């Protein structure tokens, strides 16, 4: 007695991940971007960037902004630590009480 197997439907071959990624990225690609790949690089004088001259005023503003950001981040971290330790059963611990005052 011989058995014969018949495949009812063949699954289409699966695309590889890279092929899927390429097809999706090409759909997002604009015509202008496609033309950019064909253009020759610009001459150095055509693509010059304005020279940046740092100033003391600009540097001080940067330092103040950085200080504000880091102080705010530190307050958030301290507040989260306090909230985390509040219900941990260590409220009587002196170190935690110091953190709660901040």
TrEMBL record:
Residue ranges for the region (Disordered) are 28-50
Q: Which residues cross the membrane?
A: none
Q: Does the keyword Oxidoreductase apply?
A: yes
Q: Which residues form a coiled coil?
A: none
Q: What is its EC number?
A: 1.14.14.18
**Top-level class of the enzyme under EC nomenclature:** oxidoreductase
User: Superkingdom of this entry's organism?
Assistant: Eukaryota
Q: Where is the composition biased (Basic and acidic residues)?
A: 29-50
Q: Give the UniProt keywords, A-Z.
A: Heme, Iron, Metal-binding, Oxidoreductase
Q: Which InterPro entries match?
A: Haem_Oase_decyc_pln
Q: Name one GO biological process term.
A: phytochromobilin biosynthetic process
Homology family: Belongs to the heme oxygenase family.
What's the protein name? heme oxygenase (biliverdin-producing)
Q: Which organism is it from?
A: Arachis hypogaea (Peanut)
